[in-house]
Design goal:
198 residues, mainly alpha, MetI-like fold, 79% helix, 0% strand
C-alpha cells in the first residue's frame, strides 16, 4: 500500500512538473529544471528521516513524506519525453487547428508519454518500499499496530543469535517483493520499447 500510494502521489507531482517544463520550455523549463536539480542534490534518506521525525511516524505521514520526496525521476523522464513529443507532426497539427494548450497536452502528448510514466512508477514502488522499511527499521516509520517488514526486522534483531529466522523471514520477503517489482518494471520497459511495438 505504501509503495503504490507513494508512487501515485509522486507520479502526479513529477509528471505535472515534467510535462509543463518539456512542453513550454524557456523560462518555465529553466525554473522547473532548477527545482528538479535542487531536489536531486538532497540526500533523500536524511531528508525523509528529518521530516518523519518532525511530523511523526504514522502510516499517512510516511506516505505523504515519501510521495513529496520521490517525484524527481518522474519529472526528469517526463520532461525529456515531452520535449521529444512536442515536435511531432500530430502535435503541430493539433496546434494548427486551434486546439487549446490543455487539450494538446492531454490528448496528444500525454497518451504518447504515459508508457514512460508506468515504467518509472514500478521502479518507484520498489524504491518507496525500501525507504519505508529503512525508516521503520530506525523507528521513525510505520508504528505498531500497522505492519512493516522494517519494523519486524528491527524488533527481531535482539533475537539474532538465538532465533535468526525472526529477521530472516521478513528480510527475505522484503527482498523478494522488491526484486519482483523491479522485474515487473523491466518487463514493462521491454514490452513498451519502440523497437518491440508492432
Amino acid at each position: 500500500m505504501i509503495g503504490v500510494c507513494t508512487a501515485i502521489i509522486s507520479g502526479i507531482i513529477g509528471s505535472a512538473l515534467g510535462i509543463t517544463a518539456g512542453y513550454f520550455g524557456g523560462r518555465i523549463d529553466a525554473v522547473i529544471t532548477f527545482i528538479i536539480t535542487t531536489r536531486l542534490s538532497m540526500p533523500i534518506v536524511l531528508v525523509a528521516l528529518a521530516v518523519v521525525a518532525l511530523v511523526g511516524g504514522s502510516l499517512h505521514a510516511v506516505i505523504l513524506v515519501l510521495g513529496f520526496l520521490l517525484w524527481d525521476r518522474y519529472a526528469v523522464v517526463m520532461r525529456s519525453a515531452t520535449q521529444q513529443a512536442r515536435n511531432m507532426d500530430y502535435v503541430s497539427a493539433a496546434r494548427a487547428i486551434g486546439c487549446p494548450t490543455w487539450r494538446v497536452v492531454l490528448s496528444e502528448i500525454f497518451p504518447n508519454v504515459v508508457n514512460n510514466l508506468i515504467v518509472i512508477a514500478t521502479f518507484e514502488v520498489a524504491h518507496a518500499i525500501l525507504l519505508e522499511a529503512s525508516l521503520s527499521f530506525l523507528g521513525l516509520g510505520v508504528q505498531p499496530p500497522d505492519p512493516s517488514w522494517g519494523l519486524m526486522i528491527a524488533e527481531g534483531k535482539e533475537f539474532l543469535l538465538f532465533d535468526p529466522w525472526v529477521i530472516t523471514i521478513p528480510g527475505i520477503a522484503l527482498s523478494i517483493l522488491v526484486l519482483a517489482v523491479n522485474m515487473l518494471g523491466d518487463g514493462i520497459r521491454d514490452v513498451s520499447a519502440p523497437e518491440n511495438r508492432n
